[in-house]
Amino acid sequence: MATNVSDPQYYHKVVDCQWGCPAHTNVPEYIRLIAQGKYAESYLLNRQANVFPGVLGRTCDRPCEPACRRSRIDGKPVAICRLKRVASDLKGDIEEFLPKDPGFSNGKRIALVGCGPSSLTVANDLRPLGYEVTIYEKRDQSGGLMRWNIPAFRLPPDVLDYEVNAILDTGVEVKYNSPVTSMKELLASGFDAVYVGSGAPKGKELELPGRHDGNAKSVIHIGIEWLAGVHFGHIEKIEPRVLIIGVGNTAMDCCRTARRVGASSVKVVARRNRKYFKASPWELEDAEEEQVEIVENHAPKRFVYDQGMLVGMEFEQLAWTDAPDGTQSSKVLGTTMIPCDAVILAIGQDNSFQWIERDIGIQFDGKWDMPVVDKTTHQSTLPGVFFGGDAAWGPRNIIWAVEHGHQAAISIHQYCEGESVKERPAYGMNLVSAKVGMHAWSYSNDYNPSPRQKMQHEELVKRFESVHTEVELGFTPEQTAREVERCLNCDIETYFTGPLCIECDACVDICPTNCLTITGAGDEADLRTRLSAPARNLDQALYVSDALPQTRRVMVKDEDLCLHCGLCAERCPTAAWDMRKFELIVPLASSRAHATA
Amino acid sequence: MTSIAKPPVRHPSLGKNALGFTRRDYEGAMSTLCAGCGHDSVTAALIQAFWELDVPPHRAAKMSGIGCSSKTTAYFMKQSHGFNSVHGRMPSLTTGANAANRDLMYIGISGDGDSLSIGLGQFCHAIRRNVQMLYLLENNGVYGLTKGQFSASADVGSTSKKGEPNIQKPIDPALLALSLGATFVARSFSGDKAHLVPILKAGLKHNGFAFIDIISPCVSFNDHEGSTKSYKHTREHEVDLAPVDFVPLRREITAKQGPDAGVTSVTMHDGSILRFRKTAREYDPTDRGAAASHVRACSERGEVATGLLYVEEGGEEMHALNRTVAKPLVELPFEELCPGNARLQELMAEYR
């Protein structure tokens, strides 16, 4: 009946950002370290979980931010991602704290296919244990899609180089210009395990009438290939009027890049309305700031030519209606032509596994022709072969690729040690009182009403001069100082010791967001109907205590809107409430090795 | 005490009353009382009661004297009028204020020291005059502000924090109020808001002097084993008369009132209704003699009689008794308020 707070996942779930982050980055702690000016410590704490703080501080899909409790309080989440960049920008010289070449070999050799974020994470986790790591990369540069799919105006190359080299410099061998053309051959080279982190490198095609007519070859591009072309310098300009088909984050990178290589009019055309766009809202805003027009509810029908030259694209205008079951249906309102001189197709990416022979024990599913991979262990049906990143289950994002790398590294280590990959190392936690005096806490518990700080951008004129001019200028010291105080410190947990409670109601009365109630016991659905304030957010847990000593009622806390201000603990005469700092111990291949050593 | 002020943000789904206010709008300054003080719970119950009654804060006046209890007027309804007076003199101040402006809602908050020692005479005479006010006595049996000496309400045999027993007989404020003819006498407990809030609402709507003795434990000096005013002792020895519901008038108009078996109803001055649910003991809340014997009997058994002990709605409050002018003095034209020397001379002549 009573809530079990000794399970690390209970408090983990209260830390919404950390729970939302695939790699479980300890966000509140790294924000506190920034507040204290400990940028290097903050960077390293980030690096432990997400490996690429500088890259992710600029490019992350930020699943943490929609989850942030602050957005339920004043409408805007803490700028978690941008603060990560602050830590990265100001970290200083941290050379001595980065992993070194271990200087020994454990006798195991592993091969990683592709030099993107997931493979690099595997290398990062396993190299310190003495694994001999070889990465096969088809191009002549490292970083994978982080390098040739994310334009330099969003991610400067030196930031990427620094973080990739931090891993490669520990003695990882990279074979550049070495596409793997046969899995069979790779397996025959005597590796103890193989990790496939080769991404989803093939842009989706859009076979419509006119796709290959006239001058199509030079003016109709596949999004990710075109971005790579710009990155490698093969493409330096584009025609004045450009249409982008698709509205994911790649489409956003394409339209903004097009503005920098000569396009004066750029339209992004989507089949549906804004509510269903795949691109992150902030990327849409950034594109619109650069005078990119977003066209909704237009389905592409054909490419239109005049004397062999592309002059436009024909679309059906759609009206969408929501059905009660959550699906949508469309009705065609009419046909319209949007004039253009070039088209970039950014409608998604596919995997490409023709280099894996189908008779070597790696099973592929019949429907999508994707390898069958265990969701937890990342193991394929051939025990020594593991998949992760976009290569495992299709395109996602960098932070997921990193988490896949961590999990696969655990599996590879256990596999190479002859252990079962199914038995995963357990999550742990530390829970230590944050009380440091009568009314003093080891964190800044006062609520700061500052609004979310707005990122400063480079002037439009300047940013269009070069693809390499970074748009986001980073927070000023004043902005950083304000933004860190917006964090509600959700990792400083309210910890209740029932037997000490005298039911004086002090905590219930003082709680600014009415999270607490002392009431008769009941099941959760029943309790939710009789709390101090409506508890309608079913995604958020209720804490329920054991029966209290004097009246046998229970203490109930709705975690939803807790500000973690600690007033319940300050007003508690018996210290039944305490604020305790929660630290999730996330198992990694390297930490597990330390534990067993 | 707390290290920070209560954050201004509130729960977005917090209910609003008829005036469009949430409970948070009825809060006051941050309490500086000890953590866990019963008085803070009384404050929270008052906030709830005022919010539920849709009281416009600027139409209320909070009156107090000296002591921990008397600080609590600062902790709710920061937009209300208030007067923090001399020790034990809150009843006189309130009498004067009420005489001048009968339209405000008066809430006097006092403690066992302020009301039963230095201000005992003041307390008695406010009852005699039947001043229209809610008089709260936050009763913890101890002088908290001066570090824990026994007060006049401490029971014989109850011990100080160091273990010394009290030897003097206590004054029971409820018995005293009953014997002086108070028309609304109740006792409640700060640790039980479900009990306290309806009684506060009834007291605020009473026609005349409404007295509520609230057992409000002192966590710093009187919440130990030998105390008879601790949270634990009160919970174990409380004898509640009957659960009370307060039904405001405007809601009653729409509800169909059937013959409700087992419920005693008392219609308040303004038409709202007090409902007493029947308990095993037969109890008539309009019988003064029975109320007094019930309180005395409980006390002799070492129990604490709580609930609305006595209510009489037909009485005349101070203005009715003295046949004063119907308007607050501030609303009278100057000529009426001060008719001049000629009129004074006429009046004087009448007495010659």
What does this 3D model show about the protein?
With 597 residues, chain A is an alpha/beta fold. Among the domains of chain A are: 99-201 and 351-416, FAD/NAD(P)-binding domain, CATH 3.50.50; 203-348, FAD/NAD(P)-binding domain. Chain A has 24 helices and 23 strands. In chain A, the strands form seven sheets. A five-stranded parallel beta sheet of chain A has the order 3-2-1-4-15, with helices on one face. In chain A, helix 3 packs across helix 8 (80-89), helix 4 (39-50) packs across helix 8 and helix 5 runs antiparallel to helix 8 (80-89). Mean pLDDT of chain A is 94; it is low at 593-597. Chain B is α/β, with parallel strands linked by helices. In chain B, strands 2-1-3-4-8-7-13-9 form an eight-stranded mixed beta sheet, sandwiched between helices. The A-B interface holds A 72-74, 439-441, 445-447, 449, 502-506, 508-510, 512-514, 533-534, 536, 550-551, 561, 563, 565, 567, 570-574 and B 1-14, 24, 34-38, 40-41, 43-44, 190-191, 193, 217, 219, 223, 231-232, 235.
Question: Which helices and strands appear, and what pairs or packs with what?
Answer:
The complex is a heterodimer of chains A (597) and B (352).
Chain A: H1 8-14, H2 16-20, H3 27-35, H4 39-50, H5 53-59, H6 64-67, H7 69-74, H8 80-89, E1 109-113, H9 117-126, E2 132-136, H10 145-148, H11 157-168, E3 173-175, H12 183-188, E4 193-196, E5 202-203, H13 216-219, E6 220-222, H14 223-231, E7 241-245, H15 249-260, E8 265-269, H16 281-289, E9 293-295, E10 298-306, E11 309-322, E12 328-339, E13 342-345, E14 349-350, E15 385-387, H17 390-393, H18 398-416, E16 428-433, E17 435-437, E18 440-441, H19 460-463, H20 477-486, E19 492-496, H21 506-510, E20 516-519, H22 524-527, E21 542-544, E22 554-558, H23 567-571, E23 577-585, H24 589-596
Parallel strand pairs in A: 1-2, 1-4, 2-3, 4-15, 6-13, 7-8, 7-13, 8-9
Antiparallel strand pairs in A: 5-14, 10-11, 11-12, 16-23, 17-18, 19-23, 20-22, 21-22
Helix pairs in contact in A: 3-4, 3-8, 3-20, 4-8, 5-8, 9-18, 14-15
Chain B: H1 38-52, E1 60-64, H2 68-71, E2 81-84, H3 90-100, E3 105-111, H4 112-116, H5 120-129, E4 133-139, E5 142-143, E6 149-150, H6 173-179, E7 184-189, H7 193-205, E8 209-215, H8 231-237, E9 238-240, E10 244-247, H9 249-254, E11 263-267, E12 273-277, H10 288-300, E13 304-311, H11 318-322, H12 334-337, H13 341-351
Parallel strand pairs in B: 1-2, 1-3, 3-4, 4-8, 7-8, 9-13
Antiparallel strand pairs in B: 5-6, 7-13, 10-12, 11-12
Helix pairs in contact in B: 1-7, 3-5, 6-10
